[in-house]
Amino acid sequence: MDVETPIIKKNKTTAWFSAMRLRTLPLALASTLTGAFLAMDHYALNGWVLLFTALTTVFLQVNSNLANDYGDFSHGTDNEKRVGPQRAMQSGAINEPEMRKAIMLASSLSLISGIVLLLLSPLDWVTRAVLFLFGVAAIYVSIKYTAGKNPYGYRGLGDVSVMAFFGILGVLGSYLCQTGTFDYDVILAAISIGAFSTGVLNINNTRDAVNDQQSGKITLAVKLGPRKARIYHAVLITIGCLSFLLYASVHFAWGWQWLFLFSFPLFVLNAFKVCSIENAADLDPYLKQLALSTFLFSLLLGIGLWLA
After folding, report:
1. Would 6 be classed as within a structural domain?
2. Where are the alpha helices (DSSP H) in the chain?
3. What residues make up the domain containing 83?
4. Could you tell me which residues come within 8 angstroms of residue 254 by beta carbon, excluding any fewer than 6 positions away?
5. Residues 6+ positions from 16 with CB-CB distance below 8 Å
6. Is residue 188 part of a domain?
7. DSSP type of residue 225
8. What is the pLDDT of residue 178?
9. pTM of this prediction?
10. In a domain, 178, yes or no
11. Which of 12, 102, 207, 261 has a 20 to 30 Å separation from 119 between CA atoms?
């Protein structure tokens, strides 16, 4: 998920923080927290499982961000015509060997943290093995988004990946690791987080669509065109809100459990702004706004369930 942090000075430390894109982490944690909070509504919350779920998610997100910086630079997509903030390798502060080593480190930390998580979780060994394979796939997918030959992010498949890994796997995996059981209704919550997360990617890709197309990076936003990409964004926000409302109507009694509704005006505002803004460069603030709104949604959900 490429949400960038501007490079203020071209030095190593600032460039590394830029490459890791720390402002994406709240969005990555939203899936972990949502799954854990929904589990808390029925089971006791395991703090250690929550900690290592969060660590695994953070390492995967950082790995994806580093690989995205590396991949777009290698393919020439990060150039002087790019609308978004300057990338780390684009600035010249980090070279290719350094970035490859960082990607290997982040991948290793993701794998180690994920194994510890599975060992701590109340799962049978078959389920652990299945989740381990999904975890390995997540590491692979995080790298192949823009890096390597024929990256899937250059063929319009990034949105599918975000929905699958930030939404379905993220929320369901967090819930499963807490409870050891599978609840089909949680898929509705997973679709909600996945839709909001895909919306963040869509804003990014809509902002960069002109340069991406010229560079051969054919994202879904490029395929749709500027107007349809904005309509698609409104659809994603609508799906995200309605999907969780459906889950809540089945599982929640009226009261504190509905505290999450206070985040919904932020989603409506985001959809309105993205659809009404014509200048692509002006979309950038709403990328961050949607990421933080999704994180706030998960926090309000947890507070409401705790108070109920």
Report:
1. no
2. 12-20, 25-40, 47-74, 96-120, 125-144, 158-162, 170-179, 186-207, 209-215, 220-224, 226-251, 264-276, 284-307
3. 12-307
4. none
5. 88, 94, 102
6. yes
7. -
8. 96
9. 0.91
10. yes
11. 102
